[in-house]
Amino acid sequence: MQKIVNQSQMQELAITIAHKAKNGDVFGLKGTLGAGKSFFASTFINYLVDKKMIVPSPTFNLLYSYQTPQYLIHHFDLYRLKNTSDLENIGFFDCLDNGICLIEWPEIAEEFLLKSSVKSYTEIKIEMKSETERKILIKKCY
Prior knowledge:
- The chain has one domain: P-loop containing nucleotide triphosphate hydrolases (Rossmann fold, 3-Layer(aba) Sandwich).
- 30% of the residues lie in helices and 30% in strands.
- The chain is built from five helices and seven strands, in the order βαβαββααβαββ.
- α1 crosses α2 (37-48).
- The radius of gyration is 14 Å and the shape is globular.
């Protein structure tokens, strides 16, 4: 699926995807700096948690987890990882089997995602078209 969206449409899309998400789903959020990956993740998470909150980008912490009434949401930012061995150090593989994962900059982990026991992996690519518009490409990998 491909769409050109503004900010409110991106929020609607994130909510629609969050509404359909199930335990074990993994979403890879791709795009350049400032494209809207963290905005998408924040909207997704706030739709599913009981109490709205500020959802910071996990750029420096690499992972934040959020409890929803049904499951955990793990929000990763893998931008700073240099080696695939670092994935084990941050508990990446344990999180794949325990909740929903939103992964910003998933490229370093994709070879493992494609070989793992992940039930569902969806790639969401966000491209900047202008200051106010984004092109969203959604690809269900499996």
